[in-house]
């Protein structure tokens, strides 16, 4: 069963919001575009692996599609975590292109480009997942769980990638596989482990504790990109022709250019405000951001959106009552 479903990373959601609120010729646009593309490709790869993992028998496999756990003063994030009575499996998702080559003599990984055949040194693709394995052992011990075998796999979602090595020992290539062989590999591991380490009660308890400890990364976009609020394009965007701003006229937003009218075009604009400027807003700040002078109109719009409120009158603060990952829907 899926204990935790994957959500779109906070970073991508916020970067997309920033990109659409900055002028097309803004100096941050190329960096944002590249980062959004990398983020989307990573997310797509993870979803591809989710597709296979969701085919596993529901009653036996407890799957966490991405989980981030605290360990002392830092966190460690696993792309997939699977619990079974006999063992635990961590799966990292990578997208390595060309040929992954291991030079056994020098204990060094290389990526060989398909086009230029150029050899480029690369980090050990197993290093991160091995570290996660160690951290999970420690986390479980700290929370009083028995010592359970923890296996790991690296799934490469680029199916054209070749794996090669300079020697005869191909052990590590047992641990890195293409996604289409993932289920076969998981069933093989299942056969390898016969002894039960976690009973039903342990598994339920472990799942509960993992979900409780899970702390998704909140991306601080203001700190990261250090953009100037004055550069942000303010106003409600026309859903028909993209013109900013629309004008509130006769109880709806109206586009000055194409005359399109909308009752809820302010919603994406307010979401952008929460994602980019502050997690809380006031009537005044909304008037500025939505480019609408009427206090009553803004109060009416905010009231219709089911925000959490704090304070009274002019000082009333509105905050999101749902996670930003739902905004994209
Ligand atoms: Zn328009």
TrEMBL record:
Residue ranges of domain NERD in the record: 41-159
PROSITE patterns for the chain: NERD
Name of the protein in question: Nuclease-like protein
């Amino acid at each position: 069963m899926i204990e935790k479903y994957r959500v779109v990373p906070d970073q991508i959601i916020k970067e997309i919001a920033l990109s659409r609120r900055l002028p097309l010729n803004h100096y941050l646009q190329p960096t944002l575009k590249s980062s959004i593309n990398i983020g989307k490709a990573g997310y797509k790869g993870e979803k591809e692996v989710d597709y296979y993992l969701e085919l596993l028998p529901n009653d036996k496999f407890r799957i966490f599609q991405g989980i981030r756990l605290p360990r002392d003063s830092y966190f460690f994030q696993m792309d997939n975590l699977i619990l079974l009575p006999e063992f635990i499996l961590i799966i990292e998702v990578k997208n390595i292109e060309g040929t992954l080559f291991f030079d056994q003599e020098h204990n060094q990984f290389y990526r060989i480009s398909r086009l230029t055949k150029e050899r480029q040194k690369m980090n050990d693709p197993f290093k991160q997942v091995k570290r996660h394995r160690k951290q999970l052992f420690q986390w479980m011990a700290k929370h009083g769980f028995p010592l359970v075998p923890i296996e790991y796999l690296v799934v490469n979602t680029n199916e054209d990638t070749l794996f090669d090595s300079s020697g005869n020992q191909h052990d590590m290539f047992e641990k890195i596989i293409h996604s289409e062989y993932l289920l076969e590999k998981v069933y093989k591991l299942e056969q390898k482990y016969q002894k039960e380490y976690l009973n039903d009660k342990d598994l339920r308890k472990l799942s509960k504790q993992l979900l409780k400890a899970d702390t998704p990364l909140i991306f601080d976009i203001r700190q990261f990109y250090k953009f100037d609020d004055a550069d942000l394009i303010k106003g409600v965007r026309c859903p028909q022709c993209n013109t900013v701003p629309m004008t509130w006229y006769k109880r709806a937003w109206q586009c000055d250019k194409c005359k399109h009218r909308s009752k809820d075009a302010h919603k994406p604009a307010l979401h952008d405000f929460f994602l980019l400027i502050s997690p809380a807003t006031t009537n005044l700040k909304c008037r500025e951001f939505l480019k609408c002078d009427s206090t009553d109109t803004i109060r009416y719009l905010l009231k219709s959106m089911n925000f959490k409120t704090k304070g009274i009158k002019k000082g009333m603060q509105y905050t999101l009552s749902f996670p930003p990952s739902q905004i994209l829907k």
